[in-house]
Design brief:
With 118 residues, the protein is mostly helical. It has a single domain, classed as Multidrug-efflux Transporter Regulator, Chain: A, Domain 2 (Orthogonal Bundle). It is built from five helices and two strands; from the N terminus they run ααββααα. A two-stranded antiparallel sheet has the order 1-2. Strand 1 and strand 2 form a beta hairpin. Helix 4 runs antiparallel to helix 5. The termini are far apart. Keywords: Coiled coil, DNA-binding. This is DNA-binding transcriptional regulator, MerR family. One of its GO terms (molecular function) is DNA-binding transcription factor activity. Pfam families: MerR_1. InterPro entries: DNA-bd_dom_put_sf, MerR-type_HTH_dom, MerR_fam.
């Protein structure tokens, strides 16, 4: 699919797709004979994973590190796993903190609902 269709499908702007390609996050995107980018289902799967990592708070530097390891092949599987496990722990910690914040907000709202706070 062309860049416009891929951008619509992924929700990632063409500018961002070009940037990701430039910094090595998307690797070598195929091109048609006229030089226009052609994205595949494999590219869609990869960008979806990138977006998932971003949505879970992984910094772009960490995603780039993962992408570079991925490009090196199977010999980096253990390192990539460790990287994802560390990110998972950070995400678990963040979720626990957010749950504590939510509980505090709910307690305050309950005070208002009960007329206990002016």
């Amino acid at each position: 699919m062309n860049m416009q269709a891929f951008s619509r499908r992924t929700g990632v702007s063409a500018h961002t797709l070009r940037y990701y390609e430039k910094i090595g996050l998307l690797g070598q995107v195929q091109r048609n004979p006229s030089g226009h980018r052609i994205y595949t289902d494999k590219d869609f799967t990869w960008i979806s994973f990138i977006l998932r990592l971003k949505d879970t708070g992984m910094p772009l530097e960490g995603i780039l590190q993962y992408a570079k390891l991925r490009a090196q092949g199977a010999s980096t599987c253990a390192t990539r796993q460790s990287l994802l496990e560390a990110h998972r722990q950070q995400l678990i910690d963040h979720i626990q903190t957010q749950q504590q914040h939510l509980a505090a907000l709910e307690a305050k709202i309950e005070l208002y609902q009960n007329g206990e706070v002016a």
